[in-house]
């Protein structure tokens, strides 16, 4: 591979927002498109394309991206045009890493290399990103790893986009069923079959059916065909159906899976007075992917057609028409309302009572605005006026006041009604309850506001803490300096040996306390953002040599052998004074927690050989080590992991300060340890810039 960015940092900005919670397919599609563009540019690809192993894949991909997220000459990258050996390996390892295959360019026949990256959605690989680069290219582990990581990010985006798309389709289907039920109840005398055909066709077309058939012996025989489909729907749509279907109809709607010669079919029973009188059968089109949940959702369609057929049996009298109207719409979860030309509510279904607690009788004595929150009157009035004028049919969200005083958010969609002479005859409308969605949005906004407030309060607390520690440091240092000064004078006095030992203890304790104050103040300054750093190119070997010299006496006392750093030229971009402070802290711990006669080693791995773009300095000892269950507390302030019970001196602040300083300089520090074997501290820091002083 000639060139791949050293880090995914260049790749993540286009799609990093995925982790921030994008909630609409358009934004996710743009993020995926940016990711494909990055892949094309980063790998010098001649073509990049997302492909699908399933028949429904292309429709979903093209619904999210008009060209299927393609770059370059993608015709040769279609799933049915890929080399057979590549497809075979994909099927054998559907969730594996990137697959490489040598091929020829379909445009000019020149040598080319294909990389297929499986994309994982819904716990199985149904899609893949195919990258074609010119020539016979090799790819190292880092390049393939970055390509796999990009595939994982695209997989997250596609999975989220497809889930949102499915949720949107389910919501659209619910609204479609509501609209269809409203249209069904208004069919004119003698127009029952046309109304059922239109309603059934609308639903069938939406779910991707090729054919649909509603059948009731001696009364109903309605067919619908998808545009371009064969007019012969198959035996399963005729008067005769498989024997097994008739037995299952009594149990409710079901999905009859195809066997290779026949397509999947959704079968809905039609009932009257509790008895099965007929059926609705929808046969899947070539791209339809159905499951049992869809059959249950479409139970409503069978119920609506059943009600229409039953009402037709009872006649076309006005009373029967009203009963037919109400029995159908009462099955709808949304509120259906009818307002006459004077603005009076003349009909509302039972869903209204379930949502607001107001009875139908109470509602029919009110005007529409009596139930709308006063703050939303203007929005509702503007919507009604635009609907009457035929200018706007968009959904608007308004709050309705329930009987108990609570509020329900509903999306309203209205349509103007006209009589036979063309005069205005009122409005019909559908109210869709979106209270939970609105509450979720309000909770999300409140959580964001709370997080911002908590962050601001934490920053204020940090500043107050820094100010307090600064004042306390000054107050402590003044008497402490006096104590240390007098202790030093007493050491030169004519005290006996016991007195001198006591004075030395006073001086050692004072120095220990002063170091503790300095470390705590450093941590506070870094956390409050009041810590100034002066990054420069610093030679690691030079600083290590200085630290070894400063701690030579400590090492000699423990008979610890500290290795020299033989690798020259490794440099990091850091504040020299603070880097030396870090190295002293780590080396001091490696010596004092070592075994008598132990060893300390140092290894430096420059950025070119280390992970990512960091130079890693690893300091290892042969000391007592740390248990795995204690590693999480190793960098906690004032935590000595039981060493406070030994004679080893320490404050428990050194490693906490070390971690704070490393992170302040853009680095990380990790630890690996085995009890009685030793410990390795690995410090990853930015490498010195080329040409840096």
Q: Main traits of this protein?
A:
693 residues, alpha+beta, single chain, 22 strands, 5-stranded antiparallel sheet, disordered N terminus, Beta-Lactamase, 5 domains
For the terminal residues, how far apart are their CA atoms? 33 Å
Total helical segments? 19
Number of strands: 22
Tally the structural domains.
5
Most strands sheet: 5 strands, antiparallel
CATH hierarchy: architecture of the largest domain: 2-Layer Sandwich
Helical content, roughly?
Answer: 40-55%
Strand order of the biggest β-sheet = 2-1-5-4-3
Low-confidence stretches: 1-9, 232-239
Q: Round the mean pLDDT to the nearest integer and report it.
A: 75
SSE blueprint:
Elements: H1 12-15, H2 25-42, E1 47-52, H3 57-64, E2 71-72, H4 84-92, E3 99-104, E4 111-121, E5 124-134, H5 141-184, H6 192-207, E6 209-216, E7 220-225, H7 243-249, E8 254-256, E9 265-272, E10 275-284, H8 292-297, H9 299-314, H10 318-329, E11 335-339, E12 345-348, H11 350-356, H12 360-364, H13 377-388, E13 396-401, E14 407-418, E15 424-433, H14 435-491, H15 497-528, E16 535-539, H16 540-550, H17 552-558, E17 561-562, E18 571-575, H18 576-592, E19 599-605, E20 615-621, H19 654-664, E21 668-674, E22 678-685
Parallel strand pairs: 17-19
Antiparallel strand pairs: 1-2, 1-5, 3-4, 4-5, 6-7, 6-10, 8-9, 9-10, 11-12, 11-15, 13-14, 14-15, 16-18, 19-20, 20-22, 21-22
Helix pairs in contact: 2-5, 5-6, 6-9, 9-10, 14-15, 15-19, 16-18, 18-19
């Amino acid at each position: 591979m000639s060139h791949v960015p050293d880090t995914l940092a260049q790749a993540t900005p286009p799609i990093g927002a995925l982790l921030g919670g994008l909630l609409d397919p358009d934004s996710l599609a743009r993020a995926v498109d940016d990711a494909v563009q990055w892949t094309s540019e980063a790998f010098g690809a001649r073509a990049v394309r997302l492909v699908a192993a399933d028949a429904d894949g292309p429709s979903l991909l093209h619904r999210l991206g008009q060209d299927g997220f393609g770059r370059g000459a993608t015709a040769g990258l279609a799933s049915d045009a890929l080399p057979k050996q590549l497809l075979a390996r994909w099927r054998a390892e559907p969730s594996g890493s990137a697959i490489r295959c040598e091929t020829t360019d379909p445009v000019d026949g020149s040598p080319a290399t294909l990389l297929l990256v499986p994309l994982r959605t819904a716990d199985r690989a149904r899609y893949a990103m195919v990258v074609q680069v010119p020539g016979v290219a090799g790819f190292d582990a880092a390049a393939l790893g970055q390509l796999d990581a990009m595939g994982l990010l695209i997989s997250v985006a596609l999975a989220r986009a497809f889930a949102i798309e499915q949720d949107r389709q389910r919501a659209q289907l619910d609204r479609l069923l509501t609209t269809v039920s409203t249209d069904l109840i208004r069919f004119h005398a003698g127009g029952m079959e046309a109304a059922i055909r239109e309603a059934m066709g609308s639903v069938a077309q939406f779910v991707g059916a090729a054919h649909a058939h509603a059948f009731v012996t001696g009364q109903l025989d309605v067919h619908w065909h998808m545009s371009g489909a064969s007019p012969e729907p198959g035996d399963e749509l005729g008067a005769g159906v498989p024997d097994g279907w008739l037995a299952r109809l009594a149990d409710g709607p079901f999905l009859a899976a195809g066997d290779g010669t026949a397509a999947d079919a959704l079968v809905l029973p039609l009932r009257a007075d509790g008895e099965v009188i007929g059926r609705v059968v929808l046969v899947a089109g070539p791209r339809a992917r159905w499951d049992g949940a869809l059959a249950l959702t479409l139970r409503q369609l069978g119920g609506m057609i059943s009600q229409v057929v039953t009402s037709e049996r009872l006649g076309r009298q006005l009373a029967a028409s009203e009963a037919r109207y109400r029995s159908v719409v009462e099955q709808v979860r949304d509120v259906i309302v009818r307002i006459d030309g004077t603005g009076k509510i003349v009909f509302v279904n039972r869903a209204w009572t379930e949502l607001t607690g107001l009875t139908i009788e109470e509602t029919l004595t009110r005007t529409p605005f009596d139930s709308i929150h006063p703050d939303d009157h203007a929005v509702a009035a503007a919507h009604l006026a635009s609907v009457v004028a035929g200018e706007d049919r968009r959904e608007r969200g308004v709050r309705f006041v329930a009987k108990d005083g609570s509020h329900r958010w509903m999306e309203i969609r209205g349509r103007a009604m006209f009589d036979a002479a063309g005069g205005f005859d009122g409005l019909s409308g559908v109210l869709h309850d979106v209270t939970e969605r609105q509450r979720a949005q309000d909770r999300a906004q409140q959580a964001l506001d709370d997080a911002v407030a908590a962050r601001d309060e934490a920053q204020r607390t940090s500043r107050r803490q820094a100010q307090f520690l600064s004042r306390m440091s000054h107050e402590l240092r003044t008497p402490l300096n006096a104590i240390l000064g007098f202790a030093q004078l007493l050491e030169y006095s004519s005290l006996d040996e016991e007195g001198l030992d006591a004075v030395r203890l006073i001086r050692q304790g004072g120095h220990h306390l002063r170091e503790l104050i300095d470390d705590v103040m450093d941590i506070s300054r870094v956390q409050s953002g009041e810590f100034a750093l002066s990054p420069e190119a610093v030679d690691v070997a030079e600083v290590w040599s200085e630290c070894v010299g400063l701690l030579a006496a400590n090492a000699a006392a423990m008979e610890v052998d500290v290795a020299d750093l033989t690798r020259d030229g490794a440099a990091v971009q850091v504040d020299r004074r603070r880097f030396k402070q870090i190295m002293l802290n780590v080396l001091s711990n490696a010596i004092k927690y070592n075994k008598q006669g132990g060893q300390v080693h140092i290894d430096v791995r420059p950025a070119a050989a280390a992970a990512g773009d960091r130079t890693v300095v690893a300091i290892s000892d042969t000391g007592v080590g740390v248990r795995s269950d204690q590693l999480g507390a190793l960098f906690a302030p004032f935590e000595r992991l039981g060493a406070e019970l030994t004679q080893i001196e320490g404050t428990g602040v050194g490693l906490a300060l070390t971690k704070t300083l490393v992170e302040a300089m853009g680095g990380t520090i990790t630890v690996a340890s085995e009890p009685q074997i030793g410990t390795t501290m690995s410090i990853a820091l930015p490498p010195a810039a080329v040409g840096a002083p």
